[in-house]
Write a structure and sequence with these properties.
Strand order of the largest sheet: 1-4
Distance between the termini: 5 Å
Order of helices and strands: EHEEHE
Helix content: 10-25%
Strand content: 15-25%
Bound molecules: iron/sulfur cluster
CATH architecture: 2-Layer Sandwich
């Protein structure tokens, strides 16, 4: 699984970071960035929840 945040849509709510801090973090500018190339298996469920709960639908998910 891979995830990507659309910088044009992300509004920096941080829901993704709160849900899955192993995969997302907020930058100094207050937007989300993805920390990993491929989401480790143990974090896939949390990353999927982050995708579903992002208020802006800014996170794209690609399943390998
Ligand atoms: S939850 Fe969505 S809008 Fe909020 S920081 Fe994460 S990607 Fe950006």
């Amino acid at each position: 699984m891979r995830v990507r945040v659309d910088d044009d849509i992300c509004a920096g709510h941080g829901v993704c970071v709160a849900t899955c801090p192993e995969v997302f973090r907020l930058t100094a500018d207050g937007f989300s960035e993805v920390l990993v190339d491929v989401v480790p298996a143990e974090h896939v469920e949390a990353a999927r929840t982050a995708v579903e709960q992002c208020p802006e639908h800014a996170i794209e998910m690609e399943i390998d």
